[in-house]
Structure formats: structure tokens, C-alpha cells
Amino acid sequence: MREDLPNKSWQIPHFSPGENLPTDLVQAQHEILRLRDEIVGLTKTIGVLRGELELSRITRSGNLFTSEFVDLEHVVFERDHYRQRAEELQHSTTWRVGSFMLAPLRVFRR
Amino acid sequence: MDFNHTPLTVVSPVHQPKLELLRQCRDSIFGQDDPNWIWILAVDGPQDEACSALLQQFTSDNRIQVTFLENQSGISAATNLGVSHVTTTHVALLDQDDLLTSDAVRTVREVIATNPDVDYIYSDEDKLDEDGNFCCRFRKPMWSPERLRAQNYCCHLSVFKTAIFDNHQFDQAFDGAQDHELLLRISSELKHVVHIPKVLYHWRISDTSTSKDSSVKPAAVARARTAAEQHLSSRGISAECSTNSSGYTTFASRRSAGWEPSVSIIIPTAGKRARIGGSDQLLVKNCILSLSSSSYKNFEVVLVHDMLESHVLKDLRVEGINLREVSYSRQFNFSEKTNLGVLHSDGDVVVFLNDDTQLISSDWLETFISYLSESDVGLVGPKLLLEDGRIQSAGHWNSFGAHHCGAGLNYDYPGPFGIFSIAGERSGLTLACAATTRRIFEAVGGLSEEFPGAFNDVDFGNKLRSCGYRLIWTPAVEMFHFESLSRDPSTSPDEIRSIYRRWKSELDSPDPYLPGLDLQIAGVDFSNAMLTHVPGTSPHHSELTQLGIV
Questions:
Q1: Do the strands B402-404 and B396-398 form a parallel or antiparallel pair, or are they unpaired?
Q2: What is the ipTM of this complex?
């Protein structure tokens, strides 16, 4: 299973709260799209790992399933990291001000 | 309740049967390898002496009950009478001249034992010809509400939770199509449906049955069409149904929009030229020109272009089409271009469109919008045609990889059991032309930019399905797709690795919506698989809901 996991699972980006937030609304929206894409993909990976862990629990003994458990913890941690970053972006000044300014324009365009 | 000892009740409406066939039907009941059954024969009015005697003979087994309607009232009334005598949790239906396989009762009881709250079970079926041979095996899809509107694909064997009949009955006005009508009526209430991918029922071919030819009972076909229209109307969907000429009892529906959202059509383009219809053309111009025939006018076109020169852009301005330009100067990434296009657009509905396409159906947007008005529909796509009119894609067939279903087949080829002539669920759709809503697009994170050239549609479809959305393919919308004229069709090893990393289990399994194609083309045997669908959920749905993604 380990080779099926994304390599980047082990290279979790380090976002510092409040730092490096995009100043442009489209950039912020784009980053949120990417983060959500990762979250959906990782949620799927977590489901697969949980299934494998359960299978290991049933079919193997002792600490043999420890590796699956560690894999799972890493991926859950990574997903939560992305989720936190997405929430941070949605609370940023860029997001709030940009959305506020764009809302009437969008209605007009529609 | 101990399900290990709960019998399965089988109800058979009886009316002037051929006695030999009724005996064979009885033999198939007695031949069950699980004796835990009850058989209720609901007799529709007075029968001749020989029949009455045979029925009397049947009752020597205390598992068989015979109940009578005083006057002939039709199949719905007789079935309702039989069902009213059921005391078990679930009830199966068996026509008087058909046969159950010897493992039918056991298989159904096993499903009920492991899924005690199951509302409805259906199995694969085949037909029994005049010479006693089994033929025409129908390998059915997992629960497919859209396909059900076009075709009673569930049919035999059908097993209902008996409690359903506390509030519903077969409607006499739909005799001949009463089972289809009931299923459509209750489909939105079904919380737990199981498909058993195994033949449990042999449907006898006879001159007086639609098993041979749907044209022998035109009234029944007309009633089924009415049932489909009434069902759509009850769901707030305005549509006209017509009978297909595919040789199967299937219906095509022409839908109206129902709501009037703004639509953004996203067209990524590098400004390539190619020969279409024998002449050299700027692909994107040909595409945009075709959009002017669209009958739905509240749309904008967002062109994401590779720094096209101003005179080219000026040439793309077509009277009556609101065009917005987004320039893109990075290395080619279809997903990123599309995402940027969406982010620069305003529509409530987003249509992905390749520049190597050409619109055929002027009411395409109305149809797409109508499907997207159903909250669990995440993506809808058309019948894509090659320049010579053959099918380019009838949706994806995700089985041991991702493939274009129907690719290269004749335009009017109905496909096994009419699947290319009716709208239905798919595992994936090509984004050469497909529509979603902005809300859903944003919720699942748009197109994954890990897939710059290939598989972005396979990934997007699987993301939607993992979030509990259905993907609908409809032949009611047609579009030319001059496939891959505008870009290199090859795939990179990175993309192949990435798609399998995320969706290995989905791509390595038989396609749940087109199992007939699986077996026909790939020769896969999945008789031991059990496909279960709980509407509104998916393996990851609750977790994604908690995360605020869906």
C-alpha cells in the first residue's frame, strides 16, 4: 500500500498562520480550489487506509498493522492541515473584502 | 426478529394460465434449495375447472395459499390482493408462467439477513425461449434512478419491503406497466436498494408477452410512458416522453429548463486550426459560431486563451454572444486553464467545452439545466459524435481503466438493452462537453491540476461520485467532438500514476453502471460482487459533510 500513497503525503507544506496569503481574490479562490481538491482526494485515501487497517486488524496479529496506522495518521494530519489553510484563507481580509466588493458586480453581470 | 428463520413470500397473480406453464412455475418454487418460502397465488376472477382443480391441488402444501378476487379485475388488483396477505418482512413477485432459479429464495434471504432494512432488491434476469433455452441475460446496473425513468430495467426479480405496501399499491390504471409505475412512484422514498448481479429469474418468451416484443402490448407501453411523464412532473420536471425505436421498451424525454440560471461556458483554447468538413478552420471560432444557435440565451462564453493575438480575438466576437477573455501564459495545463476560466466567470451553471466541438442540439442548455435542478446530479453530458456521425463518447466506462463508452459505434446503434438510446447514470463523463453547478464545482475543488492533459475528467467524475453525486449521460443533447484535434491526446506516466493513486479501486473494478458492457467487451465475471447503494450517501459522504465540503 505504501507505494500507492502520494509521495507528497510525506512532504506536508508548512503554512504559517496569516503569512503568505494571496492578496488577489482570484488567487485566493484558486488556492481554495486546490486545497479542496486535496481534501477530497485525501479523504478518499483515508477511507482506503481505514479499510486496510480494519482488514489488518482482522487478519493479522500484534503490531503488524502499526505501519498502516501510521500511514493513516499522517494522511489525516495532512488533510487537516489543508483544511485549516482553507479556513484561514476564507477568513482573510482579501477574501472578505474581495467577496464583498464583487457580490454586486456578479449580480449585475448575471 | 431472527432473519435466519424468516421466510420469503412470493406472490403470483393468476389469470387463465396455461396449466403446463403454471406447473413449471410451481416446480421452480418447489425446486428451491431453501425451503423457507411462502407462495401466495392471487387468482384474478373465476377460472376454468381444470385451473381451479390444479390450484386446489397446490394447497396440499401448507406453504401455499390461494386467494381469489370474485370478479376479474386485472393484474394490479390481483397483486394487491396477494400482497395484502403477506405476513413476512419482504415480498417477491413472480408471474404465473415464469421461473425462479433454484437459488433465488436463498440468495434473497441472505441479502435480507445482512441488510434487514433493505427497501427494495432486484436481480439480473434472463429469458426462457420456446425451446426451453435460457437466453438474453440482462446484466443490470446498480441503482440508477435516471435510467429507471427511461426503462424498467429492474423488472424481474423484484423484492419489496412489505411495509411499502402500507402506503402504496399497484395502480390499476397502469395494468401492464404497473410494476414500473410503482417503482417510479416510490423511487424517491427508497433509502436502501440492493442489486444482486446474478440471474434469479427466467422470464418466459411468449407471443402475448412484452418479453418477446414490446409492440405486442402497445397499451402497456403507452401506460409506462405516461407513468414516466407523471413521475417527472411530480418531481417538478417538465418533460415530454416518447417511445424509442430501439426494439426495447425505452423512453426518451425532452426536458425544459424549469429554472433560468445564468450559464458560463468555459472554453480553453490555444487557437489551433484544423480541417473540419473539408475546410481549414479556426476550431474555437467554429465552436463559438455553433453556440449562436443555442435557444437558451442567458449565457456567457469565457475564453481562456494562450495569448491569442488581438485580431484573432476580435474575429471571435460573434453577434449575440457575450464573450469574456482570460489570457493564460503558463505551460499547458487544461485543468488550471479551466479552473481559471470558472474563477473569472459568474454563471450559476458552468459548462466545460472543448474548442474542437460543434453544437448540434439547440436546446442543449435547457436539458443540462433541467438535470442540474436535481440536487444530487453533479454532472451532465451529451452524446458526442465524431465528424462522420459515429459515436465518440456515450459517457465513460470505467473498468480496468477509463474508456469512452460506445466509441466508434454507429450513431443509431441502441447498445445492449438500449443503453445508448436512453439517459442514464455513468461513472464518468468527458469534459469535452459537460455541465455542473458553480456550487458543486467549488465544493469539490474544481479540476485537479495534477492532471494537466489527461484524466482530469476521470478524476473530476470520481470526486463527484465520492461526494454522493450522480453523473448523467443523455442522448437528448448531441454535439460534434472532433476529438483531440486541438491538442496532443497522449497521456503522461505521471498522470497515469496519479489517477491510479487516487482511484485505483474504482478503475480496477467492473463499471457499476454499465456491467453489460463489462462482460460483453472485457469478459469479466463479477457474479460474487454485491453492489449496494444507499441513496444520498457514499463511502466518504458523511466525512466530507462534516468537513463542510458537501
A1: antiparallel
A2: 0.83
Question: Angle CA(B274)–CA(B279)–CA(B284) in degrees, nearest 5?
Answer: 45
- Res A65: pLDDT: 60
Residues A109, B343: C-beta atoms closer than 8 Å: no
- Whether residue A19 lies inside any domain: the answer is no
Distance CA A37, CA B549 (A): 10
Fold that domain B3-246 belongs to in CATH: Spore Coat Polysaccharide Biosynthesis Protein SpsA; Chain A (3.90.550)
pLDDT digits (tens, 9 = 90+) for A18-42: 555 566 888 889 999 999 999 999 9
Helix (H, G, I), strand (E, B) or coil at B533: strand
Residue B346: which of A4, A38, A110 has the nearest Cβ? A110
Please list every residue in chain B whose beta carbon sits closer than 8 Å to the beta carbon of residue A83.
547
Instruction: Name every chain A residue with its beta carbon within 8 A of the beta carbon of B442.
Output: 32-33, 36
With b for 16 or more beta-carbon neighbours within 10 A and e for fewer, the B413-447 pattern comes to ebbbbbbbbbbbbbbbbbbbbbbbbbebbbbbbbb
CB contact under 8 A, B445 and A5: no
Domain B263-546 has CATH 3.90.550.10: yes
